[in-house]
Amino acid sequence: MIAPHIGTRGMSLVADALWIDAKLATFDPRVGAAFGLRDGWALATQGERIAAILPPNAPELRDFREPVTDCAGKWITPGFIDCHTHLVWGGSRASDWELRLTGVPYTEIAKRGGGILSTVRATRAMSEDELVAAAMPRLRALAREGVTCVEIKSGYGLTTADELKMLRAAGRVADEVGVEVSRTLLAAHSVPPEFAGRADDYVSLVCDEMIPVVAREKLAEAVDVFCESIAFTVPQCERIFAAAKSHGLAVKGHVEQLTNSNGAELVARHGGWSADHLEYLDEVGVQALAKAGTVAVLLPGAYYFLRENQKPPVGALRDMGVPMAVATDLNPGTSPFASLRLAMNMACVLYGLTPEEALAGATREAARALGRAERGGTLEVGKQADFLVWDVTHPAEIVCQLGHTPLIDRVRRGKVPPVV
Ligand code: NIG
Ligand code: FE
């Protein structure tokens, strides 16, 4: 838990480094101002943590010598967290996209053996090293825009060995790029061809073999499902969640993306970390998420690339106080772009979030969606010192202006890692 005294002893500051005269967009809900702004304040780090957040004339600042970075009024936000990606994959789905542009629906391509299953074929054919090499540029692109923590799912292997291969690759790529990773087992992404017509048998393999080995080898923190007409039913997902929880893993779901299958209620009933997509979410689902405190993860990139017309009920989510996170859903099929800033921009332009909500969605609420609210997502004393220094005059510019990234420093666990 957060120690309020951390970083100060009497009137002197106990810290390794200090950033002064910053506009701190803390996203701390206890700070009343928009963005949780502390204007002109100082932020000190010690080791991997935020040691102090102090007003401009705090006496503790007087005797602190080096290293001090004068931000000269620049903005600092928490590090970005991309809480929903599938960034490890093999092959390309550009031909799916071409087909979709001619009007062939995603569901039809999936039924013809394209879609997710075509990525499964390509991913199975690659070694762990090859998957790492292919994923590296995607994670680098996210990191260059300020991502300090990323969630990465399996789900293109669909055999025990191939799912483990993907999760190991996810751990390695995150280490190489210097980003914290939260790994998720998404074995219930699609019924693999060798189990065609036997989905329940595949669910048994997920529950009885994959989940136990992933938990034992600590290869994932959570288990995800695709609860959808073209994937898994509520009772099948229910079995998977029960197995996940019995092995100490968190649960979450791809739900109400293409139809309303009551998946959000299922995730809420199991106390899930997040319910993701939600285009077809209804009032009952909104209420279930609100009651459970489950985060609604909005993925406007998939909505855009699938040329959907149905938008998630953002107004109802907001009114009911459901926390809303925003993520890229980076994957080769429905959301092939590695830019969390573009996802935030889409959340504003397509879904009607405010820039403040979008930024909160990629920081505070994303941390919550990954079970990290205690240690990340906001600038608060005692939390991980993951933050970004921006050359902007207003934080909305981070979301509004695309094409160049006005990021000066990306600090992760108190250190500026080498440029990725
Ligand atoms: O989040 N909805 C299911 N899974 C992914 C799509 C994956 C794919 O098409 O390869 C998604 O949109
Ligand atoms: Fe997804």
What do you see in this structure?
The strands form three sheets. The chain has an eight-stranded parallel sheet with strand order 8-9-10-11-12-13-14-15. Strands 3, 4, 5, 6, 7, 16 and 17 form a seven-stranded mixed sheet that branches. Helices cover 35% and strands 21% of the residues. It is α/β, with parallel strands linked by helices and 420 residues long. The longest helix has 18 residues, at 160-177. Helix 4 (128-144) packs across helix 5, helix 8 runs parallel beside helix 9 (283-292) and helix 12 crosses helix 13. The chain contains 15 helices and 17 strands. The model is unreliable at 1-5 (pLDDT under 50). Bound molecules: N-(iminomethyl)-L-glutamic acid and fe (iii) ion. The site of fe (iii) ion has 5 residues, from loops.
| Major sheet strand order | 8-9-10-11-12-13-14-15
Q: How many beta-strand segments?
A: 17
Structural class: alpha/beta
Q: Give the oligomeric state.
A: single chain
Q: How large a portion of the residues is in β-strands, by DSSP E?
A: 15-25%
Give the CA-CA distance, first to last residue: 32 Å
User: How many H/I helical runs?
Assistant: 15
What is the share of helical residues?
A: 25-40%
Shape summary: globular
List the uncertain runs: 1-5
- The pLDDT mean sits at 95
